[in-house]
Amino acid sequence: MAPVSDQRPVDPTALTFEGYRRGDGSLGVRNNVLVMPSVICSHIVADRIADATDRAVSVPHDHGCAQIGADHEQTERTMVNLSQNPNIAGTTVVGLGCEHLQSDDLAAAIAERDRPVRETAIQAAGGSDACIEEGTEATRELARTAESSARTEATLSDLTVGVVSSDVEASTREVADPLVGEVVASLLEAGGRVVVAGTERLAAHVDTVAERAANDAAAESLRAVAERSASQPGNVRNIVHRSGEHSLESLTGAWGGAPVEDVLEYGEQATADGGLSLVDAPSRFEEATTALAAAGASIVVHVTADGIPTGHPVVPVLKVTGDEATATALATDMDVDARTADADEVLRQLAAVAGGERTATERHGLTKFAISRIGPSL
Amino acid sequence: METFAGFDRPSGPAGVRNYVAVIPVSVAASAVADAIADRAGEQVHSTPHQMGTDPPEQAREQIERTLSGIGTNPNVGAAVVVELGTESTDADAVADAIADAERDVEVLRIRDRGGTSAAVEAGVEAADRLWADIAGLERTEQDASQLIFGVECGGSDATSGIASNPAVGRACDRLVEDGGTASFSETPEFIGAEHILADRCESESLRERLLERVDFRESAAQLMGVDLRGAQPSPGNQEGGLTTIEEKSLGAIVKGGTTAVRGLVDYAESLPVGGGLVLMDTPGYDIESVVGKVAGGAQIVAFTTGRGSTTGNPIAPVIKVTGNPKTAERLASNMDIDVSTILEGESIESAGDRVYDLLLEVASGERTAAELRRLEEFAINELQPNELAQLRENA
Amino acid sequence: MKGEVLGGVGLQMSRDDNVVTAIDDVEAGAVIPYDSGEVGVEEAVPFGHKIALVELAPGDEVHKYGEVIGRATERIEPGQWVHTHNCRSTRGRGDITDGKEEVA
Question: Looking at beta carbons, which residues of chain B come within 8 Å of A370?
Fold first, then answer.
């Protein structure tokens, strides 16, 4: 839970910590090696490799084969950009061999970017045992290299912070989102970059959403995303429907009142120097957080009324709830009780987490990873 | 009549394994379920998945049907159902289905336990307690007619249609002759071969339903506005000599044998006991497809592979059959039976009889390569928004 | 195994098939006895891949298992490798708006 406030207003640029500066200029708050299966068929092998290596995290997922068109492209884009998350020092791609998303192609795409990549595949290695061995060796090597990553003093304004509210309950809209919104406003004012997820809440506000845009291109993208959300009956239907019951302002309280500079595709990397970007991701925690991490967020703030208790393998997650029952029932799984915390406390907590302090989910260690789908399995 | 040594259940057919299943109802409970299974005894297996906390109705029905099917699979002696406590997916309904099959079941609500760590503790205790109640069960002689044999192919190449699929098809024919059930699925891999299956359908209505399902799956390509070839055949299939989906399908359907098609069920819907050859409508995506059949009641799965897939399942043993001599050698530690001998002259009947013998041995307790390595991939087929919209249009 | 291996090189699954499946890696110059004559293999063909037994014009059906597995997309000479570069499926073509009509 949040520490007691000392009553002084906090300037995010005054909150310093030691971060990891990557070759592309981004700033990480963790220094991990990513073990990335290219397909579901190699995800347990990837898990075993990560289990056998200090500072390695795996991202087991259900995809990589039997997908077509834009659905396949979204999976690939997400994985490539995930490897460039500032918390990641290097990546081992683990394939099976016959899948649609080939591990050597994925590794080649990653190699064109900033950080080291290694690749292994079950069929090429001669079986799962051999692949675990080969992958573990490669991952340990990457981990040794990671140990020498330089630490630099940084402030919160150097970070990209991700934000997702995974529901539109009253406690979220009225208590937790406004608190997070204050934090977001403060970060943006200090020159930081914030990415937010959860586009289905725009569904009922196609006509007014453009007012939130900082420029014409963003206005057009916001309208397009809202229209598409309105037309979809998908897993997001509940928030889609309920978006009509509330004002746009009430649904976007966590955005800090800032204009949206651009709208990123799911899995796309943010390129703006600062300001607020909307990521076209649903509000579901795991899928949203993956998109925010791919966009470049090194920390994610998750507002949850029901207290979704899992973390994410790539980014530390600050769990914020405004719900009384959840704050009580899941006290050890939540980081911020929004009913009592103020923005300064949350900023201090963010700085502490950026400096290495573990969040509630990092303490229990249970994470969940998922990538959004936009087409059926074949 | 062939027999195997299996576990009697209070209702339904005998199991070939005796597990406590830890079944999360949503992604929010999934990591807790995994942690429970990791810390509890070896016979406690989790079925982690990524289904959302609030899926649309048809998707939710499919998720609940799958989870209930997993919990009532004959290999499951008892179960813990895990939920966060706010999901729309109904943990109590899943638990009721398991209780109706006369298995002990407990529901673990994370929110009622004071959080993740406490829930894991409570879950481990529950799982160990449930295990203690079924640990003493002994294998007894069971008639092979109780077996529901799920058949899958993955990482296919040209040898699949020539060797491994015909061999497994022969094993299916043997089991059907002995009164059991064989089931294969992967509807996209009927495309181009559906007329052959249609001609084997027992009734005209079944025939029509089968052709409708194939049409629907084929229209997925139209739905996405692209050529199916992006995914079917996959790059590995193509490297292995398969040029088109028709060629892949014609080789794929052989794995179900030659008997009449006696039924067609939905994804994860119950497969009949003693039902002969019954198809299930699933995607061609292996893990989701295997899970559908295990949820349908398959106690045991044969998985043919040319390129060498190494995947298994947490609830049913998966027998890996390859007809590719290079894969048999290179991936020997992940393969259970080599039928590439067919290319050198062994008859399909003889190789198929070896598969059937192995099926009965594995049913009696012999562990497969995937079981020895605890390769237990699990995923539920999630109906996607555009798929749901299409289903609604067709309704 | 079903079908007949022609000249120890390629498996003809059904008597009407106009392609055979290489049962080992095949070198250019290998000879396949066929239809009381022979077909000379024109290029190296990997294990499991197909070799044309007859000349195929663009649009001609390719037969294996005694069934249609696709159509030639270009002219294929006897002895040439038949694969995705010169043979294409007629099914699941969401990229063609009238795709359903193409299926015979």
Answer: 27, 50
Cβ contact B290:B150 at 8 Å: yes
Look at B287 and A374 and tell me if their CB atoms are within 8 Å. Answer: no
Q: At what angle do helices B57-71 and B91-100 cross, to 10 degrees?
A: 40
Residue A341 in tokens: 């915390």
Residues 6 or more apart whose CB falls under 8 angstroms from that of A206 comprise A223, A226, A227, A230
The answer, yes or no, to whether residue A6 has pLDDT greater than 80, is no
Nearest alpha carbon to residue A186 among A210, A154, A209, A155: A155
List the single residue in C with minimal CA-CA distance to B225.
C94
Q: What is the pLDDT of residue B395?
A: 63
Band of pLDDT at residue A239, cut at 50, 70 and 90: confident
Distance CA A6, CA A19 (A): 25
Instruction: Say whether both B123 and B75 belong to one domain.
Output: yes
At position B148, the amino acid (one-letter code) is I
**Distance (Å, whole) CA A251 – CA A169:** 10
Q: Is A286 on the interface with B (CB under 8 A)?
A: yes
The CATH number of whichever domain residue C61 belongs to comes to: 2.30.130.110
In contact, A337 and A175? CB cutoff 8 Å:
no
> A32-148: what CATH class?
alpha beta
Residue A5 pLDDT grade (very low, low, confident, very high; cuts 50, 70, 90): very low
- What are the chain C neighbours of B306 within 8 Å (beta carbons)? 48
Parallel, antiparallel or unpaired: strands B276-280 and C4-6: unpaired
CB–CB contact B243 C84 (8 Å): yes
The rounded distance, in Å, linking the Cα atoms of B161 and B342 is 11
Contact of A217 with chain B, judged by CB distance below 8 Å, is answered with: no
Phi-psi region of A307 (alpha: psi -120 to 50; beta: other; left: phi over 0): left
Question: What is the residue range of C8's domain?
Answer: 4-102
Q: Is A242 exposed, middle or buried (0-12, 13-18, 19+ CB in 10 A)?
A: middle
Q: Which of A86, A95, A85, A148 is nearest to A118 (CA)?
A: A95
Give CA–CA dist B3/B361, Å, rounded: 10
Q: How far apart are CA A205 and CA A222, in angstroms?
A: 10
Q: A-chain residues within 8 Å CB-CB of B120?
A: 366
Q: Is residue B381, in this structure, part of any structural domain at all?
A: no
Q: Does pLDDT of C101 surpass 50?
A: no
Q: B117 is in which domain, residue-wise?
A: 19-136
**CA separation for the pair A182, A174 (Å, rounded):** 13
**Backbone dihedral angles phi then psi of residue A77, each to the nearest 5 degrees:** -60, -45
Q: Are residues B279 and B210 in contact, defined by beta-carbon separation less than 8 angstroms?
A: yes
On whether the CB atoms of residues A321 and A346 are closer than 8 A, the answer is: no
Report the phi/psi class of residue A294: left, alpha or beta, with left for phi > 0 and alpha for psi in -120 to 50: alpha
> Domain tally for chain C?
1
